[in-house]
């Protein structure tokens, strides 16, 4: 995944509102969002090449997401697939803080990445480039292929769009959030970062929604958890920029058996 924005514990009705685009090579095989056969508590899309995922939630309300850290001046490292970080957290019994501490210990197993893990009540962020664990403050946050809340134009734009909309509405329409994430206009070259990919590719990657010959936005996900612990999860899958399928799921978070 390459872009997400979310609001945490700042709305009268929703504990968490998250919208996210996954950008990937069109040829990489992927399964649309579903509850997994081998881990039926996990709801997520799936990378069929490495069997990991980029964003998911489980029935107990654990949420995790991941983006790659883009800096082509850094050496490519890591022997394990980054997508297993998200699925490992959703399978684990560890708290988000303990999981992030474990990830920090094993940080060299993975190429550069950013990880969100937690729940609607408590969310943590970790980058194995920055190497610090942060518990997130309430409010609106954005993440692309740099550190959390790095002011890339598309990060600032998605954060602003989400914050403005949620400030004005009590019960929102998910179609509005999907519309935000489908904006394909590019930002001026002078506003863009230099991540070592060259000016032309930097421009291509600057838009919120990406479409090119071989690479682009493969799906958009909107996830909400309201004050009653009700989850709404919708994913729209794209084939070279055209929406082909929509998956919708809703459920209530299960309370632990011992509670």
Please give the largest β-sheet: 7 strands, antiparallel
End-to-end Cα distance: 35 Å
Count of helical stretches: 5
Radius of gyration: 17 Å
Count of individual domains: 1
CATH evolutionary superfamily: Penicillin V Acylase, Chain A
Written as H for each helix and E for each strand, in order along the chain, the element string is EEEEEEHHEEEEHHHEEE
Give the CATH topology: Penicillin V Acylase, Chain A
CATH architecture: 4-Layer Sandwich
In the sheet with the most strands, the strands line up as 3-4-5-6-7-8-9
So what's the CATH class?
Alpha Beta
Strand-pairing-aware structural class: alpha+beta
Q: How many DSSP E strands? A: 13
Low-confidence stretches: none
Strand content: 35-45%
Output mean pLDDT: 95
What gross morphology would you assign? globular
The helicity comes to: 10-25%
Pfam families: TANGO2 (PF05742)
Protein name: NRDE family protein
InterPro entries: TANGO2
Organism: Sporosarcina ureae
Main features:
NRDE family protein, TANGO2, 6-stranded antiparallel beta sheet, Penicillin V Acylase, Chain A, alpha+beta
Any overview of this molecule?
The chain is α+β, with helices and mostly antiparallel strands and about 260 residues long. It contains five helices and 13 strands. The protein has a single domain (about 5-250), classed as Penicillin V Acylase, Chain A, CATH 3.60.60.10. Helix content is about 20%, strand content about 35%. Strands 3-4-5-6-7-8-9 form a seven-stranded antiparallel β-sheet, with helices on one face. It has a six-stranded antiparallel β-sheet with strand order 10-1-2-11-12-13. Strand 12 and strand 13 (about 240-250) form a beta hairpin. The longest helix has 16 residues, at about 155-170. It is globular. The model has no long low-confidence stretch (mean pLDDT about 95).
């Amino acid at each position: 995944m390459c872009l997400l924005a979310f609001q945490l514990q700042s709305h009268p009705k929703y504990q968490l509102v998250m919208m996210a685009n996954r950008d990937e090579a069109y040829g990489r095989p992927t399964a649309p969002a579903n509850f997994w056969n081998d881990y039926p508590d996990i709801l997520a899309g799936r990378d069929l090449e490495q069997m990991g995922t980029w964003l998911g939630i489980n029935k107990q309300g654990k949420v995790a997401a991941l983006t790659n850290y883009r800096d082509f001046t850094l050496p490519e490292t890591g022997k394990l697939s980054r997508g297993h970080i998200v699925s490992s957290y959703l399978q684990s019994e560890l708290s988000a803080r303990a999981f992030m501490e474990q990830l920090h210990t094993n940080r060299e197993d993975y190429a550069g990445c950013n990880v969100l893990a937690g729940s609607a009540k408590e969310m943590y962020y970790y980058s194995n480039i920055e190497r610090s664990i942060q518990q997130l403050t309430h409010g609106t946050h954005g993440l692309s292929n740099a550190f959390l809340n790095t002011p890339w134009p598309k990060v600032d734009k998605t954060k602003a769009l989400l914050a403005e909309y949620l400030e004005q509405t009590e019960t929102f329409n998910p179609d509005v959030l999907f519309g935000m994430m489908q904006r394909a206009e590019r930002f001026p070259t002078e506003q863009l970062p230099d991540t070592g990919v060259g000016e032309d590719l930097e421009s291509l990657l600057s838009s919120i929604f990406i479409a090119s010959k071989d690479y682009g936005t493969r799906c958009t996900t909107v996830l909400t958890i309201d004050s009653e612990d009700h989850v709404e999860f919708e994913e729209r899958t794209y084939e070279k920029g055209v929406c082909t399928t929509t998956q919708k799921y809703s459920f209530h978070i299960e309370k632990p058996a011992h509670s």
